[in-house]
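Throughout our pipeline, every protein is held as a single compact record rather than as scattered files. The record that follows is passed on verbatim for readers who wish to inspect the format:
___
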Amino acid sequence: MYLINRSPSSAVENKIPEELWTSVIPSLEGLRRFGCIVYVHSQEGKLDPKAKKGVFVGYPSGVKGFRVWLIDEENVL
């Protein structure tokens, strides 16, 4: 829904739905490019690295956040 509400819709004459609801153009700064390198905060131990390197793979539905493929662990967060 996050992406849908920030994309132009043909049902409302190619306007952005959130702009129609709030009368303000939504900021797109929180969006990331698919496949870009990201770093995920980690709190595993005092001497361990504070971030894990991963690849951005998308936005989960129904949850605020990102889906990230962790390169070293070979799993998705």
Observations:
- The beta strands are 37-41, 51-58, 67-70, 75-76.
